[in-house]
Amino acid sequence: MTRNGFLTALVLAVSLLSSVPVAAGETLQLEEYRGKVVLLDFWASWCVPCRRSFPWMNEMQKKYADDGLVVIAVNLDNDAAEAATFLQEYPAVFEIAYDPDKQLARSYNVQAMPTSYLLDRDGATIERHLGFKTAKTDEYEAAIVAALKGAEK
Amino acid sequence: MTKPDDQKISAALAKATCALLGATAIVPVQAEEESKWDFNTALLYYGEDNDRVQDLSVSLLARRNLLDDRSITLGMTVDALTGATPHGAIRQPVAQTFTRPSGNAAYTVPANNLPLDDTFKDTRVALTASWQQPLGRLYQFNVGASASKEYDYLHLGLNAIIARDFNQRNTTVSAGFAFAADSFDPVGGAPTPLTSMLDVGDLSNRQGSQDKDIVDFVFGVTQVVSRNLILQANYSFSDASGYLNDPYKILSVVDGVSGDTVTRTPPPGVEGPSHEYLFESRPDQRTKHGLYGQAKYYMNGKVLDVSYRYMTDDWEIDSHTVDLRLRFPMGDTKFLEPHLRYYTQSEADFYQPSIVDGAPLPTYATNDYRLGNFDAITAGVKFGWQTRNGNDMSVRLELYQQRGSIPADSLIGNQVGYVQYPDLDAVIAQFSYRFGS
Amino acid sequence: MKIMVTLGLLAVLSGCSSMGVEPWDRDILAKEEMQLTTDPIEAATDDHIYFSKEASSGGRGFGGGGCGCN
């Protein structure tokens, strides 16, 4: 699939650019997650479908953590306080990173809110999901399971 | 990063849908808040001065949000109308007697008073229902039905709208269609146009109920310009056919020189009109075109909403509407929103204050002030606040004023002294409460 | 008249293709008060009042704006 080729090529650029702060003020280095399957989700406090995605991402993180799944939700709010308010109402068991300068969002060419990228254990992008639909969560989960087993689409 | 290529919009997007006569508007699902149920209630008072129309209404809009941006919305409005409305006869320096629309009684208007028909004590119930869902990722679809009933009028309608996003959802193109089938069963029966108002008990010039069909199309474009600015433009088309008259409106028959209304005497023992009046007549077809533009601009917490609408039709009525709202936040939970609306319309080509006795009858004629030449201004303010449990309440108070003029060349003889456009002053007061779960 | 309107809208559309904001910059547009119709009951009530008192009616639009999510 040409889309995959394009996205995979992006990852090389992205891994060089991904110095994105994590909650405690450290930067997010996606290379640290080699060997893990990463669900990279871009969200914002004002995004309604993001509220539906958080409980599901919590479920996925808990269910597949032992198998090697890491969920990282990258926040794109301009105002960190709004993100904090959102997280109080929708607490996350997974990692939250902050990208207020939109560096990571641009390098991943985010085209919708929310967008999630499924990265395999080598850091290559396997799938991209524009938006979050509760009707499609089985599909999303099947892709995660396949990635954890080492299969590539 | 590259943006999607320019999209070509085919002109085949001509299947359009429009909201008509208060049918459900698309309620934005993707605003900040979302809950399973969203209830919107309102109590409205509308009152005109000089014993004219007063209306009290209660509205309820209930939306049930379902998964993945689908929703069903049900609405109901009940209003109680009382008061009188000018029925088109011109005032005279003598008392005038009219037969009621039912034909069962007569009533007298004192000398020099604007004749008003106060038969209208009416309750209206209106219902709307609509279903909204995405189709695929980029389309949004809404289909709805509406119905309303008052003692002499029934409305049934269907509407559908489809919208498609382009340019990463910065551009939205929408097309809508609405169809309404209305029927009028006037008290006493619909009078034959341009026949006389008859004595009490005489319904010989009345027919049964009448139908009216209306088709509407709307085609629109919404464009996000910047983080703070969104624009909308649309073209609307409306075609009404069937019975478009107001069965309760009349015109005075006047002397061609003096302009005074011709008198008549009912037969002995019978009550009836004191002067000659004819029931109005309008064409059985009306085609309207409209152009509408709106901008919403966010400036540091304040929101400016400005819109303009131009409408023209084949009755020669042209109108311009300019609407301005500015919302000022007051802290985090309150706001103040002043509102100003300016409206102007030109009269229908068959609008005339009276009919000359003895001259050939015009094909169409009306003295309904709503088809006349007037300017209207609405000025008001709305104040909104959040309750302790996070629900929204608001009150608004507005003044509505119509000031019209009658072209000098349509006034005859003495009419220049006493025939004026029936200016209107009204108060609009509304309280609303929005809550969800 | 109709041809002019269609051409006008098409011109607006083609000019619009490069305007707009990135998907993550819809925070203000997502606000309640920035929706095209902020209060549907008020809009319907006003439409009904003005329909009863004036010769023009309708013409408002819908769709678009908001957070642009999903």
Quickly describe the structure.
The complex is a heterotrimer of chains A (153), B (437) and C (70). Chain A is of the alpha/beta class.
What does this structure look like?
The complex is a heterotrimer of chains A (153), B (437) and C (70). With 153 residues, chain A is an alpha/beta fold. Chain A has a single domain (2-148), classed as Glutaredoxin (3-Layer(aba) Sandwich), CATH 3.40.30. Helix content of chain A is 39%, strand content 22%. Chain A contains five helices and seven strands, in the order αβββαβαβαββα. The longest helix of chain A is centred in the middle third of the chain and has 17 residues, at 48-64. In chain B, β9 and β10 form a beta hairpin. In chain B, the strands form five sheets. Chain B has a 16-stranded antiparallel β-barrel with strand order 1-2-3-8-9-10-11-14-15-18-19-20-21-23-24-25. Chain B has a three-stranded mixed sheet with strand order 17-16-22, with no helix packed on it. A two-stranded antiparallel ribbon of chain B has the order 4-7. Chain B has a single domain (37-436), classed as Porin (Beta Barrel). Chain B is elongated and about 75 Å long. The relative contact order of chain B is 0.14. Chain B is an all-beta fold. The longest helix of chain C is centred in the first third of the chain and has 15 residues, at 2-16. Chain C has 70 residues and is an all-alpha fold. Chain C is 41% helix and 0% strand. Chain C has helices at residues 2-16, 40-53. At the B-C interface, β1, β2, β10, β11 and β14 of B face α1 and α2 of C.
